[in-house]
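User: If only I could read backbone structure tokens as easily as an amino acid sequence. Those tokens are not coordinates but codes from a learned vocabulary of shapes. Could you go through the record with me and say what the backbone is doing? Here is the record:
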Amino acid sequence: MQALRGAWPEVPESADFVMYWWHQAALTVRSGHARRFGLITTNSLRQTFNRRVVQAALDKGLALTFAIPDHPWVDSANGAAVRIAMTVAAAPAPASSVLAEPALTARLLTVTSEQTGEHGEVAVTLVESTGLIHADLSVGANVASSVALQANAGISSPGVKLHGAGFIVTPDEATLLLPPPLGEGGGRGKPSQNIIREYRNGRDLTDTPRGVKVIDLFGLSAEQVREQFPAVYQRLLERVKPERDQNNRATYRDNWWLFGEPRRELRPALTGLPRYIATVETAKHRTFQFLDASILPDNMLIAIASNDAFHLGVLSSRVHEAWALAQGGTLEDRPRYNKSRCFETFPFPDQDTGLSPELRERIATLAEQIDAHRKRQQAANPGLTLTGMYNVLEALREGRALTAKEKTIHQQGLVSVLKELHDELDAAVLQAYGLEPGQPTDALLTHLVALNAQRAAEEKTGHIRWL
């Protein structure tokens, strides 16, 4: 890999290995040594660092002439199912060149349905569209051209990355590790230092919560931990340090009592907030919710340092869902929320788009109602999950009959009420953008791309609409 990076320093270091081949193929075509090229890659080609390689080639005159952005692929050797992308690219040849060919019509094929056969093969139905194919393998609104906005900077981050399962404890273990506070003249323990916190990962939010806690010693030296919390120190000495000693990164080995990625930039952003917004990075349904400030988010959550229900409402709307699906990648068949592309580029509505104080309040109220409704129904019905509720909500939107299991979820979650709240929220957010109901997705994205460009131009003049 070092040799590759040395030979092609213009390829981002975070790009997948296959992108070096894509880059070299593009150079070969642009130099006139080939008429076109085609490659099969994983569907991660559309993700940020890989997409930069594609965009750089498009900026220098290459054109995508054919693409399938997300197609199933089954490995016959071990049955592994992955998702692939197919791309074909060509460069315009000079009119006098013997390689000149008629103008090409770019074709984008999108999988609309999949059916797995008895031997693992997958039959797919494809729909074709034509037009300029962008770097994210889409036609229509060029969401790949959007840029990060200063207004959204510095308030979103993945949660902590532990690098050691020994940090996770049950509530009973937490009680044993931290003795109750002593009276005056007692020991040195400082229970006011909240070193054992509630902890949530992606499954805790979308499925069944584990009810676990985590030892968070950020800001403490090993000596301070040993002196003030000896039981905690011993647990990590025995259950985390041996694993960290084998790690290749010196910082992980040397700071074994701390999380591998403690998210230093996230902590000050959350300071003083009673709650914050969180979403699961990779999930079937894009949902956002408030988490109490006492809860520490896992690396598979994206935390947004805002206590404002208006922000929760806009993020929970169909408008932002369309943006996130267009900007983010996928893991297998589940959409991924890339905070750099999905959140930092997203232009929130403001007075210039039609947002009034009354409309802002309505969006915030509906967001609070949605958040409270889901949490109330889940608390009253153990086993009721967000994924289950939104599967049923999707079925209601499609107008299909519910199965027996879905009818139970529908009743437990009062999903028709949830749907009505979401419908009202979507209408309010569309109004805040100055848009009519029933906007097709491409029109919605075109509007947001234009608004992103407008916001970016404003920011260059010093006008930043801080969140």
User: Anything to note?
Assistant: Residues 41 and 421 are 41 Å apart (CA to CA). The radius of gyration is 25 Å. The longest strand covers residues 63-74.
